[in-house]
Amino acid sequence: MAWIVLVVSGLLETVWAVALEASRGFSRLRPSLLFGVALALSMGGLAFALRTIPVGTGYAVWVGIGAVGTALYGMVFLGEAATAARLVCLALIVGGVVGLKFV
Description:
It contains 4 helices and no strands. By secondary structure, it is mainly α. It has one domain (2-102).
């Protein structure tokens, strides 16, 4: 259960990162509210998962999911460059996250 909560919390990290950008420095209400809710849920889920998952592993997995998710969102929806080098770097992050789960 802790791993499922951790993955969902990592996905919520992507949500709050995207909402933070969309809030334009907290000048837009709806993205600002989404940021706050997603941040609270993401942190709460991370805290729950860290009850049973070691902090180094849990935090690295959480950040990795959020970083990869946010980068992919930027490439797919915001027109950010999807170069081969960027995709390889993202694949390395995913490989590291998966490795942490199984080591």
